[in-house]
Write a structure and sequence with these properties.
Layout: H1 3-13, E1 18-27, H2 34-37, E2 40-49, E3 54-60, H3 67-78, H4 80-91, E4 99-105, H5 110-119, E5 129-132, E6 153-154
Parallel strand pairs: 3-4, 4-5
Antiparallel strand pairs: 1-2, 2-3, 5-6
């Protein structure tokens, strides 16, 4: 885990209606060992929002360029229906709850990622939600009851 992940995890946990599973293994095919069962990813965090009745696949990066994140998003997009089924099967998320990527990245990387997502066709996964890393710093929100991130979301 890189040092900035813990800051994002605390930001997510500050919303009392959001429950977080860090380094969650998303395994497309059932099996005892994800290394032998086929495609799988360790998502930085899977956040389940009970208020929104939604599931978020949270990825965190400050790498420039964000090549690893773009590669992950491409793979997720390719296997989106199977990925959603795997979350229902292995994480017991309700099958009627929407699943959406939630990206945490510096504001300076947002245009590049938005351009990458715009060129991805067809886009099988929902448009990712993006939050600036600059807005998850602990002095920017109440740690015991974080308000909605709508004020800090990046429009993609």
């Amino acid at each position: 885990m890189d040092h900035f992940e813990s800051i994002v995890f605390e930001y997510l946990r500050a919303d009392r209606s959001l429950f977080v599973n860090t380094q969650c293994c998303i395994q497309l095919n059932p099996g005892d060992n994800p290394d032998t069962s086929g495609p799988h990813w360790y998502c930085d965090a899977v956040a389940v929002g009970f208020k929104e009745k939604a599931v978020y696949l949270c990825e965190i990066t400050y790498a420039s360029p964000p090549n690893s994140l773009m590669k992950r998003l491409s793979a997720w997009n390719k296997d989106w229906p199977s990925l959603c089924l795997a979350l229902v099967r292995d994480c017991a998320v309700p099958s009627d709850w929407p699943v959406r990527p939630w990206l945490f990245l510096p504001e300076t990387l947002q245009p590049r990622l938005a351009s990458f997502l715009g060129a991805m066709a067809p886009l099988l996964m929902p448009q990712p939600k993006m939050t600036r890393l600059e807005d998850v710093l602990p002095w920017r929100y109440r740690s015991w009851n974080r308000r909605s991130e709508e004020d800090s979301a990046i429009d993609a």
